[in-house]
Amino acid sequence: PLADIQLENGPYVFTGNLKLEATGTEEISLSNNINGPTSITVGGDLIFARPAAGNITINNNHATVPVNWLINGNVRYSGTANASVNWTPGSGSITFATSTAQNIDFRGLSVDNIVSSNTSSSGLTFNSSFTTPSLYVNTNALGSAATIYFAGSSTFTISTMNVSGTSSFPVVFKSTNNAQWLLNNTSLNSV
If residue 174 lies in a helix (H) or strand (E), which one and from where to where? Predict the structure, then answer.
């Protein structure tokens, strides 16, 4: 059976964690319908719970307006089952905004545009690979430095990277391990 949750209009605000849980052979589908929502705020963690072999789908591509996510916690998995998680990106964004460390586990998903607004000295950590149309961070607008960690021995595909730092508020990219890492620019850049 399919539990299809249609979100319309909006905005939607979840003050704590948002847990999407597929049990048995069920499928949970969070579809952002044609009329919205314009924004989804998760005050805590976005959790993909997999106690059994069900499927979890987030579909942002139905909406005629961009669906913008604001996540103030982590993106994580719970459970041990071999369920799948699918994320269908639209034209919106996922903003990670808090002053505490955030750990993001997309496990190879293709997701919406990513905006880093994390101002913690421990930074925003991507614990696994992902594909996104863009990564944006502007420390001058944040009024703080920004540190982004990428999982060592992983590959991240980012079509457009727009990074703006200053001498007072630098943007720092780091690996989660000590191995040498590579930024492979396949098109053009402007510094």
Answer: strand 171-175
